Amino acid sequence: MRDHTSTASDTPIRTAPAAVSVSQLTKSFRLPHERYHTLKERALHPFRSRTVDVLKAVDDVSVEIAQGEFFGIVGRNGSGKSTLLKCLAGIYEIDGGSVAVRGRLSPFIELGVGFHPALAARDIVIINAIMLGLSRTQARERFDSIVAFAELEDYMDLRLKNYSSGMQVRLAFAVAIQVDAEILLIDEVLAVGDAAFQQKCFDEFVRLKAAGRTIVFVTHDMGSVERFCDRAMLLEHGRVVDISDPSSIARQYNELNFRGVRREAIEHGGPEVFRRPPVAELLAARFESSDGEKIVTSAQGEPCCVRIDVRFHADADDPLFSIALRDELGRTAFAAGTHLRYGPTGHFRAGEEIAVTIRFDNWLAPGRYQLMASINRSDPSLDSLDGREDISSIIVHSSKTGGGAVDLPHSIVIEHGQ
Which of 59, 71, 53 has the alpha carbon at shortest distance from 10? Predict the structure, then answer.
């Protein structure tokens, strides 16, 4: 195995050998130009060109993850983060470099992997617990705890094919965390499941972190990265952009997204505003409690804040700052902006960095909400200076729900006639 030379940006405090060591790891896929769909096609066209493209999904990645570290892997779609996680789990055979894992692994990588749809859920629990390293006796002893965490006591005799995707992910995650593993590999577990389950996952992350487990966490959610991770790694086109503290990685991820939006607009002949250097740039956005603490969950009825950080690259007068929260169906549940309540925002100088905070009472219905933030010109054209979809997210939880898009405070009076 090759030695990994650490830099100033990727050196956490290490008091024990690394739990995961990756050195110059490379993984490629061969993509054929022509594909045969039937034996007849192969027989009729035996000499058809069989040229291939080589996609280097992971390219010379090196990193060391300390024991007990909560380590995030982030990147845009196609950056290679899920491929890297599968290489760590041994699902993919690597082409070059090396991977060393010290401790038992519990992977939670793809929904339903190893789940046979014809089997009853109770059989799935036992089989997967054994596959992940428990003995049959241990699997049976922990069966009730697994089912209780998944909250599926009434559905264990159903075949898996009758489960929804949300029920499957709850079951799979409940099994994964019951295994006596020192290292957990988790890929976007919070992307599926209802708000109550996602909150339970967050609570479990806190417990696992306190217990000293090593967790490698792949996600698009920068709020989760900043809340849980000790360090994070940013990938782009299979290569390491940086390994650093979560706040720095979240900022670089957002800047990378912004450059991608501008490049795509130019390539497709977008608005002329995208061809000029940006006047303003959204650096980051996050949800905060009323006392300024970063949050990724919020109880219904509590005060909530959205903070966006902005850098100006040119002088600007009265730009408009706005946000919108969209529910899991893509519907706008809440929108706010300076043009609605605040009035003129003033003059901003080139090189200046500011923070804009929007406060509101959170009466949103329980669920997961994605944040969209934008900066616009104040002139009638309302040209966008910068805008980001899904720049952050929050989970709203409540013990009760009214069933609407919001649960507004209200009272009910019943009067009997005299």
Answer: 71
CB 251 within 8 A of CB 268: no
Amino acid (one-letter) located at 90: G
Backbone Cα Rg of the chain = 25
Q: Tell me the per-residue pLDDT of 240-275, one tens digit each, with 9 for 90 and over.
A: 999 999 988 888 887 776 665 555 544 544 444 444
261 within 8 A of 101, measured Cβ to Cβ: no
What pLDDT score does 46 carry? 60
Asked whether the beta carbons of 326 and 294 are under 8 A apart, the reply is: no
Q: Backbone phi, then psi, for 84, in 5-degree steps?
A: -60, -45
β-strand pairing of 384-397 with 297-299: parallel
What span, in angstroms and rounded, lies between the C-alpha atoms of 177 and 162? 24
pLDDT category of residue 401 using cuts at 50, 70 and 90: low
Q: Rounded to the nearest 5 degrees, what angle is found at the Cα of 155, between the Cα atoms of 153 and 367?
A: 80
**Whole-number Cα distances in Å, 353 to 126, 245, 321, 334:** 54, 20, 14, 26
Q: Is the pLDDT of residue 279 over 50?
A: yes
- Could you report the per-residue pLDDT of 139-155, keeping only the tens digit for each? 899 999 999 988 888 88
User: Beta partners for 204?
Assistant: none
Tokens of 179: 């295994």
Intra-chain end-to-end CA distance of the chain, in Å: 88
Bridge partners (DSSP) listed for residue 63: 22
Which two tokens mark 333? 């549940």
- The DSSP element (H or E) to which 88 belongs, if any, is helix 81-89
pLDDT at 5 over 60: no
